[in-house]
Structures are given as C-alpha cells and as structure tokens.
Give the backbone structure.
Amino acid sequence: MDLESLKIFCVVAAELSITRAAARLGRVQSNVTTRIQQLEADVGVELFVRTGKRMSLSTAGECFLGYAQRLLALEEEARHVVTGGLDGGALRIGCMESTAASRLPVLLAGYHTRFPATRLEVTTGPSRQLLEQVRTGRLDCAFLALPPGIGDDATLEDMGLLAKSVWREELLLLLPPGESSVRRAADVQARSLAAFSQGCTYRAIAEERLGIADTTDWNVQEMGSYHAMIACVCAGACVALLPKSVLELAKAPQSLKTLHAGYAETCLIWRNDYDVPAFQNLAGQLRRI
C-alpha cells in the first residue's frame, strides 16, 4: 500500500467510474484499473462491487475510504508542518449551514487574501456529525453549536478536543402567517417543525422549546436548507428555528413574525494535538475580524 494508490482509490471512490477517474487523474484507464486491483490484493478484500459497467463501494471499501482519506491528510499535514507552512498546505473545515451562510464568507475571503497558497475545503453538516468527524480526523476543525450534553471542557477533553467560542447567535422561532399574534412558544398552534436532520443542535433546541418530546402531536419535516424551511413556514405549514443572522440574509416576508428563542454559541472545535500553521493562521484571522 502506498500513498499514490490511496489517492487513486479516493478518486475512483468519488467518481465510481474508472473512465472518469482516469480522466481526472490524467492516467490511462488500464493503469487505474491495475492500481485498484493491486490495492485490493494488498488489503485482501474487494473494495468495489462491480455489476456490469457499474461500480459501487463495497462495505469494506466504505470503511477503508475513511482511513485512506485520513492517511492522505496526515501525510499532507506532516509535509506542511516540517516546511513551516511554506507549502501552503490544506485545511479541512466543517461548519453548520447557518455559519456557512452568514459568517464564513468574510472570514475565508480574508484568509485567502493573506494565505493564497493554502487550500481550503469546506464541508457542511449537523453539529454532532461535524464533532465526530473532527474527533476521528476526517476534518481538521469545525464551526458548530455544541450538542446538548457536550457543553463542558471536561467532556470535550475526554474526546480529545478543544473549543473556543467565536460567535454568539440570537435564535428566532419563525411563525407561519396565521400565528402572528403568538407571544410564547407554548402557544404555537402549528404541529410541524421544519428542521435539519438529527444531530443538528438548533433542531434539539427547537424541540426543547416547543416541548416536542412530551407529546405525539408534533411532526418534524427534515429539510436540507434554510430557504426550504422558510418557504414551508410561508406556506403556513410549520414553524422553524434559525439564527437571526440567517433570517436577515434570507429576506423573509415581513408578514412572518418571530419569537425570541434564546442564544447559542458557535464554537471552533479542533483536536488537542492539531497544531499546524494553516490552522494557526485561521485562528489569527478570527482575531482580525
């Protein structure tokens, strides 16, 4: 097993096509096929399931992909550290959808201006999943709202993680047009919540504020964007909880009213053994804004 084979494997796993992977890598197809076969022989299992001209990752391949990505990231991290950051390196950043929309553009634009050689990779997702990806090394750091039960330094330390509060978000419960006179979350008549999938801290906060766990009346509609959530609220079908900074960007209709739902800290999370120049530059950039 060598790094070049791992790189080829990751590209084939992303493309699920030898033809497209070969074009992306600038290699002939036969070379890519041979390297994959050699890698499979080396690890002793089939990494892909081949059905005619179609291919997909096997169960072993899905497991191996995470390790391959971590090994490649570790190699790049080592190179970046020993050169003192001269090669630019890469930084894999995770963040919530809300942070990507309202906070990251200014931060990352400034970072790129100062450190153009560093390759920035941004992934969005629910806070709990992002936390796990940082813990396992699939992400270098992440901006997230700590999930319930993981709000103290001792718990994070047990996970091998460090946290620094970066932004304080005001949370608002967005009400459908027919409930503009509601003044308390307990008085909301709608029984549907538009939210991200399980693992989203804001979803957990909304469920707690609305008492969803204490009744069977509520339905949660899982959606992939705040724009979709706002659209559903506009249709009178549900309520949604979101940061004020995101609502201001979305320019929701003035007819929609909101209830204050408290505050949540957005934290920067990283592993306690992760200290590379690209990350330190990000920390420095945060202090500049």
In short: Residues 59-82 form the longest helix (24 residues). DSSP finds twelve helices and ten strands in the chain. Residues 88-168+267-288 form a domain with the D-Maltodextrin-Binding Protein; domain 2 fold (CATH 3.40.190.10).
